[in-house]
């Protein structure tokens, strides 16, 4: 059989003669005659359709001959391609080369082959391939600088320290000689916590144990900076690294439109089942009369008549299901996928979303969520690199109450300026110099030197750049440099600065009291060349003012408050002079605290508190964290569109809070509620204190804001606006309270507080916590649509968790844009993406969905009614060609063009008037009310199609000679009225006409006429019956047919035309139409108690009316 098939495949079907000769017994008649045996098939009977080797291709060919099944093929290919792209991105990371130290030599391996315990060498500007314990570096002091922008969004440099006993092992041979073991905690996602110890074994000596903390851990994804190379030992690899634990796998997202389609399909499936049940029941009721039997063209055989009645009823039920199955719009899925895929190109092609700086535009990674962009209720945004450019600028300073401002504000480069300065009054010269020295000394900034050749002179010109764990420290050092005091670096514990007289000053750095979010200040203790001991301290005003002489505060406080109102980040500067005895005590206490393995933080905090007391205030600074262009305007537009904006950042609270004021997330009148380490405290009663604060805030908000059933959106009717600030440690207490906690409902109370605030700031968030916040809001009652936007790998988890994820093509790598649904160059592009593209996508696809259900109901209802006139014999009303071509050719292209090109409101208007976004929010166009309207409209027109033709041609005469027409002519007239009506209905709904709309609408009608003539004008040899032969041509020779078609089309569209006329009249009279969307939204929003008054929404509807039904 296989040989025969291959022979046919290669040589074609063998020729057969008219007769066959069979040789009995396979013996030739004569021995002298040559015997050539003919080839016959063997005696196997094959009734199966497939073989083992042809099943897959043959079955796929048969399946995809059905056009509707292409939907599943498209989904299969699209999802496969998207996952292939992710595999390729993973391979780029996993196959990257790293260097492992083995046997005192460097061995190059692929990153995925690193094992726990391997000693890895990482060079400058390389990314750490796994979580490493820092052993040694090229720096003699055993330090290195890293940037964790891809992890927590902070692009500033952080200092990490090698294990004290291994800092000298800075060569391959030396590090390979190390014998040690590491004991540490099991992998956990918190980026800022690590507990462990290393035990170092030396020959003929006792093992030495050293504690390990987060300052010794180099995280995968972080980048080595300002250090030539480091050695580290792998402790967490692969999916156990902190970055991987903060990564949340990508799940399939479903839009609200898809959920509405599923709900509507259930309704239409019930209609299908009801129709089949009714027809089956009535058929047997009708046939219960002995005079009524199956029609002659559907007569049953005796065997079929003797079949069990229940089985016959079930068979008839299935036949009716097949007859009416076209009411289920399977082809709609194909059209929706095409609309989403083709429509996504409009985002990529938008020139206004193209950024000249990076030479890139917007990118669509997932086209399935286009319409979801028009339904967003909550926006979760990162701060660093998303709202801001992450570049701080020194603006002005205040010394002893006198304001100083630089004439020229420069961000880039280092121009040393000795003056002049704009100032209002002037402090004493000594106080000015003391203030500028404090800025030059009170920081953890490091100097990076670079030799560049001067093209004119030809000798190296030395230039400096600053690196620090805090960008505002760099801004302050640059500010001091503009005023004539330049920090020259730290060498052997001596800080060098150059004063305004170009003289170098040396200060011995004795201690650094590092910044922490609870103290909100940092200090340094230095010794001058004359032996004087000085403590310089800088920090937030609330942290400095209680620790200085109270009579010094008032003048500076005025400037601090003014700068805070302007959105600047303010810091106060203080100092005090120490005696040798005081310093000796502080030095002893600090050393004891640093050596403690238990409660180290608490002990050091106590020493810091005692040391930073009784200081003298010098002045204050104002630093601007420059926002991205139009960030504030974008947030205001999102608020005006009814969306709530939450900022989720890994940055410090003070920096984030200042940015929120600058971008107008917080207004000056906003009362801030804090749930932070400062307000909750670090004592054993912190959970009790948290409970007290939660209940206090909850009670305050309940009294101020009336209870509503929906989530509270930004409102202009509240007497007081509230904003909430929470940090990561407090969020952990809320989401994961201890078992012995007195309250287990922290999460619910916290969520209620958040929903009643106009803005929320979450700072010091780990990536996984960002995702938890998004999930918490997403799973609230009503399932609000959420959107997350960020630019770094630390934002990937929340981008994947939200309904819609937006990646910024920023400076922090492309992890966010690769894992997002959409990527844009800047935050400002979010405005047009949502307010214009999202609005239009939703309106288009909502109309497409409603239109498909409507036109299919119009299509099948006459088929159902016809059964009452043909004895329920399952006789189709339409020809099979019309059944096949209706959704594929006659009505598909017009609605596809509409769903791609329609603009009911100009794009510029949508972008400039954000309140229009609220008109289509909450899935307004796919609610049950508009769905029922479209359903009743389809039922009405279906009745008009059938009974209009039935009553107009009741005498069955068609031609002038009295010749009657048959059921195929009847069905063709109904089908003609149907095609023209549903197509012209779409033409009435179109407001934005292009040449393509004209082409597909009038072209579809012309194609229907041409096809009908062609199909009925040719005798097709492959058809057993030529029942449609010249039916269409004969039909159109009758004047009465022309009049009937025109009349029925007009009657069907008359309600639609009347609705448009009444709407236009009411618009002129400044009234809202009965089916005008703003009225629906107005009612719903006011019922929930969180939107403007009805008059305001009505005024909006007068400008931009939009019907949804």
TrEMBL record:
Question: What Pfam families is this protein classified in?
Answer: Cation_ATPase, E1-E2_ATPase, PhoLip_ATPase_C, PhoLip_ATPase_N
Instruction: State the reactions this protein catalyses.
Output: a 1,2-diacyl-sn-glycero-3-phospho-L-serine(out) + ATP + H2O = a 1,2-diacyl-sn-glycero-3-phospho-L-serine(in) + ADP + phosphate + H(+); a 1,2-diacyl-sn-glycero-3-phosphoethanolamine(out) + ATP + H2O = a 1,2-diacyl-sn-glycero-3-phosphoethanolamine(in) + ADP + phosphate + H(+); ATP + H2O + phospholipidSide 1 = ADP + phosphate + phospholipidSide 2
**UniProt: Mg(2+) binding residues:** 382, 384, 791, 795
UniProt keyword Signal present: no
**Gene Ontology biological-process annotations:** phospholipid translocation
What is the protein's major site of localization?
membrane
Gene Ontology MF term list: ATP binding; ATP hydrolysis activity; ATPase-coupled intramembrane lipid transporter activity; magnesium ion binding
Residues binding ATP: 382-384, 473, 515, 538, 569, 649-651, 764, 770, 794-795
Q: Does the keyword Lyase apply?
A: no
This protein's GO cellular component annotations are:
early endosome; endoplasmic reticulum membrane; plasma membrane; recycling endosome
**Topology versus the membrane, per the UniProt entry?**
Multi-pass membrane protein
Q: What is this enzyme's class at the first EC digit?
A: translocase
Cofactor(s) the protein needs: Mg(2+)
Q: Where in the cell is it found?
A: Cell membrane; Early endosome; Endoplasmic reticulum membrane; Membrane
Residues at the active site:
382
Q: Which UniProt keywords apply?
A: ATP-binding, Cell membrane, Coiled coil, Endoplasmic reticulum, Endosome, Lipid transport, Magnesium, Membrane, Metal-binding, Nucleotide-binding, Phosphoprotein, Translocase, Transmembrane, Transmembrane helix, Transport
Kindly list any coiled-coil regions of this protein.
576-603
Could you tell me which residue ranges the P-type ATPase A domain spans? 96-223
> Residue limits of the P-type ATPase C-terminal domain?
818-1065
What Enzyme Commission number does this protein have?
7.6.2.1
Membrane-crossing segments per the record = 263-286, 317-336, 881-901, 931-953, 965-987, 999-1022, 1042-1062
Q: Which residue numbers delimit the P-type ATPase N-terminal domain?
A: 37-79
Q: Which family does it belong to?
A: Belongs to the cation transport ATPase (P-type) (TC 3.A.3) family. Type IV subfamily.
Protein known as: Phospholipid-transporting ATPase
Q: Which organism is it from?
A: Falco tinnunculus (Common kestrel)
């Amino acid at each position: 059989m296989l040989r025969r098939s291959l022979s046919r495949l290669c040589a074609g079907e063998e020729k057969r003669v008219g007769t066959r000769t069979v040789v009995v017994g396979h013996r030739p008649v004569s021995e002298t005659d040559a015997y050539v045996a003919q080839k016959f098939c063997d005696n196997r009977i094959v009734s199966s359709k497939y073989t083992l080797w042809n099943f897959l291709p043959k079955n796929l060919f048969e399946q995809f001959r059905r056009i509707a099944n292409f939907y599943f093929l498209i989904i299969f290919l699209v999802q496969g391609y998207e996952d292939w792209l992710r595999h390729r991105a993973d391979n780029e990371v996993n196959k990257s080369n790293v260097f492992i130290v083995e046997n005192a030599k460097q061995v190059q391996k692929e990153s995925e082959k690193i094992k726990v315990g391997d000693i890895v060498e990482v060079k400058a500007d390389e990314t750490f391939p796994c979580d490493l314990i820092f052993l040694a570096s090229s720096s003699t002091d055993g330090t290195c600088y890293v940037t964790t922008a891809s992890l927590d969004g902070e692009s500033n440099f952080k200092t990490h320290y090698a294990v004290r006993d291994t800092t000298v092992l800075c060569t391959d041979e030396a590090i390979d000689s190390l014998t040690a073991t590491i004991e540490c905690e099991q992998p956990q996602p918190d980026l800022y916590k690590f507990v462990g110890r290393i035990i170092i074994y030396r020959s003929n000596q006792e093992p030495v144990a050293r504690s390990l903390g987060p300052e010794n851990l180099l995280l995968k994804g972080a980048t080595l900076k300002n250090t030539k190379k480091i050695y580290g030992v792998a402790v967490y690899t692969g999916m156990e690294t902190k970055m991987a634990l903060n990564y949340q796998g990508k799940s399939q997202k479903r839009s609200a439109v898809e959920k509405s389609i599923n709900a509507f399909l259930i309704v239409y499936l019930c209609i299908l089942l009801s129709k089949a049940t009714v027809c089956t029941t009535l058929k047997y009721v009708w046939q219960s009369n002995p005079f009524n039997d199956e029609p002659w063209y559907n007569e049953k055989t005796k065997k079929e008549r003797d079949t069990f009645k229940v089985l016959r009823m079930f068979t008839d039920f299935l036949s009716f299901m097949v007859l009416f199955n076209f009411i289920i719009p399977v082809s709609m899925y194909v059209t929706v996928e095409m609309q989403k895929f083709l429509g996504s190109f409009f985002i990529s092609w938008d020139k206004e979303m193209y950024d000249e700086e990076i030479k890139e535009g917007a990118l669509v990674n997932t086209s399935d969520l286009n319409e979801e962009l028009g339904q967003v209720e909550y926006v979760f945004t990162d701060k660093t690199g998303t709202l801001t450019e992450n570049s701080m600028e020194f603006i002005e300073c205040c010394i002893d109450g006198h304001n100083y401002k630089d004439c020229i504000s420069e961000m880039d480069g280092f121009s040393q300026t000795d003056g002049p300065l704009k100032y209002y009054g002037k402090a004493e010269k000594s106080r000015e110099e003391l203030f500028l020295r404090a800025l030059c000394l009170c920081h953890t900034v490091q100097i990076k030197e670079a030799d560049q050749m001067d093209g004119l002179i030809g000798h190296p010109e030395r230039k400096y750049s600053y690196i620090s764990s805090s960008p505002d420290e760099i801004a302050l050092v640059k500010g001091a440099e503009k005023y004539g005091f330049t920090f020259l670096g730290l060498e052997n514990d001596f800080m060098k600065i150059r004063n305004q007289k170009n003289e170098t000053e040396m200060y011995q750095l004795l201690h650094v009291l590092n910044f922490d979010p609870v103290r909100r200040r940092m200090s340094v203790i230095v010794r001058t060349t004359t032996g004087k001991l000085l403590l310089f301290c800088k920090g937030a005003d609330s942290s400095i003012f209680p620790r200085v002489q109270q009579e010094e505060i008032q003048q500076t406080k005025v400037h601090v408050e003014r700068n805070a109102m302007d959105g600047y980040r303010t810091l106060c500067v203080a100092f005090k002079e120490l005696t040798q005895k005081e310093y000796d005590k502080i030095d002893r206490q600090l050393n004891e605290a640093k050596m403690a393995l238990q409660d180290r933080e608490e002990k050091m905090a106590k020493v810091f508190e005692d040391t930073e007391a009784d200081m003298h205030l010098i002045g204050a600074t104002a630093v601007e964290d420059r926002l991205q262009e139009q960030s504030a305007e974008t947030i205001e537009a999102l608020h005006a569109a009814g969306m709530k904006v939450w900022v989720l950042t890994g940055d410090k609270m003070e920096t984030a809070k200042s940015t929120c004021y600058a971008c107008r997330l917080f207004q000056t009148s906003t009362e801030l509620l804090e749930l932070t380490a400062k307000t909750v405290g670090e004592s054993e009663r912190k959970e009790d204190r948290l409970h007290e604060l939660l209940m206090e805030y909850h009670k305050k908000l309940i009294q101020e804001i009336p209870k509503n059933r929906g989530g509270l959106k930004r409102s202009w009717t509240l007497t007081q606006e509230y904003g909430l600030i929470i940090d990561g440690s407090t969020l952990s207490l809320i989401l994961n309270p201890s078992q012995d906690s007195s309250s287990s409902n922290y999460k619910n109370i916290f969520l209620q507080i958040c929903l009643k605030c106009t803005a929320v700031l979450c700072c010091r968030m780990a990536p996984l916590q960002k995702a938890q916040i998004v999930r918490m809001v997403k799973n609230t009652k009503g399932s609000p649509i959420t959107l997350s936007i960020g630019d770094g790998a630390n934002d990937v988890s929340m981008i994947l968790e939200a309904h819609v994820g937006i990646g910024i093509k920023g400076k922090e790598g492309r992890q966010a844009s690769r894992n997002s649904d959409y990527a844009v160059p800047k935050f400002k592009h979010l405005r047009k993406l949502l307010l214009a593209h999202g609005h239009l996508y939703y309106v288009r696809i909502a109309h497409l969905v409603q239109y498909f259900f409507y036109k299919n109901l119009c299509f099948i209802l006459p088929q159902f009614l016809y059964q009452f006139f043909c004895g329920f014999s399952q006789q189709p009303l339409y020809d099979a060609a019309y059944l096949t071509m209706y959704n594929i050719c006659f009505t598909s292209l017009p609605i596809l063009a509409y769903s791609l090109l329609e603009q009911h409101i100009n794009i510029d208007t949508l972008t400039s008037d954000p309140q229009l976004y609220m008109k289509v929010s909450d899935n307004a166009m796919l609610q049950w009310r508009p769905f029922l309207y479209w359903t009743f409209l389809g039922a009405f027109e279906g009745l008009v199609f059938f009974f209009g033709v039935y009553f107009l041609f009741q005498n069955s005469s068609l031609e002038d000679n009295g010749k009657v027409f048959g059921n195929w002519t009847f069905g063709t007239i109904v089908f003609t009225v149907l095609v023209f009506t549903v197509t012209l209905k779409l033409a009435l709904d179109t407001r934005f006409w292009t040449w393509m709309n004209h082409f597909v609408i009038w072209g579809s009608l012309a194609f229907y006429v041409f096809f009908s003539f062609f199909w009925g004008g040719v005798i097709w040899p492959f058809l057993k019956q030529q029942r449609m032969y010249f039916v269409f041509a004969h039909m159109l020779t009758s004047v009465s047919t022309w009049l009937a078609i025109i009349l029925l089309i007009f009657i069907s569209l008359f309600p639609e035309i009347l609705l448009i006329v009444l709407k236009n009249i009411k618009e002129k009279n400044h009234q809202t139409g009965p089916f005008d969307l703003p009225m629906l939204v107005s009612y719903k929003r006011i019922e929930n108690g969180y939107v403007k008054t009805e008059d305001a929404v009505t005024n909006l509807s007068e400008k931009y009316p939009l019907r949804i039904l």
